[in-house]
Amino acid sequence: RRWRDIALNNSLLWTRLVFEIPGAQFAQLRFKRQQEYIRRSGDCSLDIYICTGPDISDETFCNVDACLAYAIDLLLPQWLRWKSFIVAFASRTGAIEVFRRIKALCVPKLEYVRLCFLYHSQDTDVPQMPLFEGGAPELITARYSGLGIQRCPPPFQKLRELQLHSGNTTDMRMLPTRFC
User: Fold this and answer.
1) What angle do CA 139, 147, 180 make, to 5 degrees?
2) Which of 8, 56, 82, 94 has the most CB atoms around its CB within 10 Å?
C-alpha cells in the first residue's frame, strides 16, 4: 500500500500521455484514464503522443476524428506544460481539426514536435496551415511528414533540427544555425 501511495503521488510518473485512437470503441475509458494522468502530473511538463493509426476504414473516420478533437480539447488547458507533442493523423479532417485548435497557441516549454499525416488512399491533401502562431521559444526539433506547414512558428531561436518528409520522397533534414 505504501508503494502504491508513493507512485500515485509522484507527479513525474504521470507526465507521458498516450492517446491511441484506433476507433471510438473504449474511447471514454481511455480519456478518463488520461484525465487522471493529467491530474496526477501536477505542474510537471507533459510528453504527448496521439496516434489515430493508418488502418482505419472509411466508415470510422468520423468517430476517430471526433475522438482526436476531444483528445486535443482535453490537452488544450495544459498547453503551458507541453514539452513534446507528437501526433499521427489518419485523415485530412482530423489534421485540420488539430491545426485549427493549436494554430494560435504559444507553447513556451515545447522542445519537440512531430506531426505526421498517414496517407489514406482517397485523402492525401492536407492544406497548408499555420502552426503555433503564438510562438514556441524552446523548440529544438520539428519533424513534419505529409503536411503543408504555412509558415514557421515564431520564434525559432533554439531550433536545431527541422525535418520534412512528403510521400515517397527522401527526408529533408536541416540542421540550422538559425531559422526564420
Assistant:
1) 40
2) 94
Residue position matching grid coordinates 480519456: 31
DSSP bridge partners of 129: 149
Dig out the grid coordinates for 54 from the structure.
493508418
Mapped onto helix, strand or coil, the DSSP state of residue 75 is helix
% helix / strand / coil in the chain, to the nearest 5? 35, 25, 40
Amino acid at the residue 101 = R
SS3 145: strand
| Structure-block grid coordinates of residue 68 | 482526436
Judge if pTM exceeds 0.90: no
Return the DSSP state at 152: P
Choose between 123 and 30: higher pLDDT. 30
Compute CA 89 distance to the chain's CA centroid, rounded to the nearest angstrom.
9
pLDDT of 32-83, one tens digit each?
888 999 999 999 999 999 987 655 444 444 577 778 888 899 999 999 999 9
Cis amide leading into 155 (omega within 30): yes
Residues 6+ apart with CB under 8 A from 110: 82, 83, 84, 85, 132, 136, 138, 139
CB-CB neighbours of 110 under 10 Å: 27
Q: Tell which phi-psi region holds residue 167, choosing left (phi > 0), alpha (psi between -120 and 50) or beta.
A: left
